[in-house]
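Comment on both lines for my students:
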Amino acid sequence: MTDAPHGRSAAYTILTTGYVGSTGPGVAATVSYVADAGRHVVFDPGMVASREHILGPLRELGLGPEDITDVVLSHHHPDNTMNVGLFPQALVHDHKVEYRGDQWRNRDAEGYELTASLRLIRTPGHSSEDITLLAGTERGVVAFAGDLWWHAEGPAEDPVAPDRAVLSASRLRVLAAADLIVPGHGAPFTAGDSTPR
């Protein structure tokens, strides 16, 4: 598990479970909150039926938009990024840059550590810019994998993936590091024999 973060102090909450196509009425992102070492991270604040599906669960955790220190975007498709503006004070992370206000800093996401328990890795496949957030928790490593998987069933053949071999390699990399996967548009799942690779 060389990709896995060394720390195991992160905690997470699924703010809203997404859906796509036959699993829901339209498209909504799975939006997650991850906390560690004073960092309050929202992963993929994308399309949802109402912004209250993001802000309400954060409020239940005692947090407002101003408390979010970081936003991680798995990739730049609107269904995963639509609500990034809800967190104007956050440092926004993507595959190659950190953004805040009118400033940015170039840095590669590969191996970048937000904390000892939160690491970004490049996992292209659904798009060329995909990244995964690996969170070391007490119960193991959780991979916030964006659209490497839309949901537990895949899709096995991602219709927008530019290169199936690249997608497969990234899926295998995440499976080797993670105990639990949070997909882009579904509930968290533990990989099994039927998990698309």
In short: The two ends are 18 Å apart (CA to CA). The chain has a mean pLDDT of 96.
